[in-house]
Amino acid sequence: MTDLHCIIIPHYRHLEPLMAMLPRLSATGLPVYVVDDASGDDVVAALRAALSRWPALTLLIRKRNGGKGAAMLTGLRQAAADGFTHALSMDADGQHAIDDIPRFLAHSRKAPDAIITGKPLFGDDIPPSRLHGRKLTNGLVRLVSGQPIADAMCGFRVYPIRCALDLCSHISYRTRMEFDVEIIVRAAWRGIAIHSLPTRVVYPEGGASHFHLFRDNVRLVAMHTLLIVEGLARRLLARPRRRQ
User: Fold this and answer.
1) Residues 6 or more apart from 214 whose CB is under 8 A from it?
2) pLDDT one digit per residue (tens) for the chain, 244 residues
3) Is residue 118 within a helix (H) or strand (E), and if so which, with residue range?
4) Residue 229: which residues within 8 A CB-CB, separation 6 or more?
């Protein structure tokens, strides 16, 4: 079976950086799904006008805001229905290196059953709070997953679509900022190969973040708690029972 790749970009009110990305994404020759997560009529109208210039780009619109994971799920389902086998995900805020797409796709074609995830190479532009929070999350992920996962938060990834959809069925309502972390932990628990490739990640000057300090930190704490409890249960159940 031939591997067919596409690009999925979850989007919520990042119109300007997304518009800057589109010509270069179109030049890759890959079909691109932009999934708008209820940004509003003004943004959708601008997206429709822009996307009409690039036939390879498809706009999917969610009527209710559900978070990045919900937008990814919408894109994955549509890509699967359209016959694609793999999806490269990237953020709409301009942080990810479009020049690295061919390298990620080449690796995916060599290891089609693996999830290929970015190992970020940061510059001095990363806010210290984001860097320290990332280190904490990655430490917890390695503890819970039992694997030396290089980075659990980078959204620049290639997913085997059927595999990703199956993993999504276990994530339930946790479809916002915690999505990238949970899906990679559940992949590790399933024994799915996770390959990490270095990639440059930038924090554009004046770039807007949709991270809500209180709400999203509460969501992350709740997710980590659930994964720790489930991870401990898995280890206990996997232990061989002693003979009486």
Assistant:
1) none
2) 578 999 999 999 999 999 999 999 999 999 999 999 999 999 999 999 987 888 889 999 999 999 999 999 999 999 999 999 999 999 999 999 999 999 999 999 999 999 999 999 999 888 887 888 889 899 999 999 989 999 999 999 999 999 999 999 988 778 887 899 999 999 999 999 999 999 999 987 655 665 555 566 677 788 878 888 888 887 777 766 555 5
3) strand 115-122
4) none
Q: Bridge-partner residues for 32, per DSSP?
A: 7, 57
Query: Which tokens sit at 219?
Result: 């969501």
Q: Cα–chain-centroid distance for residue 209?
A: 16
Rounded to whole angstroms, the Cα distance separating 186 from 171 reads: 9
Residues 203 and 94: beta-carbon distance below 8 Å:
no
Characterise 146 by phi-psi region: left (phi > 0), alpha (psi -120 to 50), beta (else). left
In the block, tokens 């009110």 appear at 13
166 Cβ contact list (under 8 Å, min separation 6): none
First to last CA, the chain: 51
Q: What is the pTM of this model?
A: 0.90
CATH number of this structure's domain 5-238: 3.90.550.10
At 29 the three-state DSSP class reads coil
> Which positions ≥6 away from 81 have C-beta within 8 Å?
none
Contacts of 87 (CB under 8 A, 6+ apart): 5, 6, 7, 8, 33, 75, 76, 79, 158, 159, 161, 164
In sequence order, what DSSP letters do the residues of 176-196 get, joined into one string? STTHHHHHHHHHHHTT--EEE
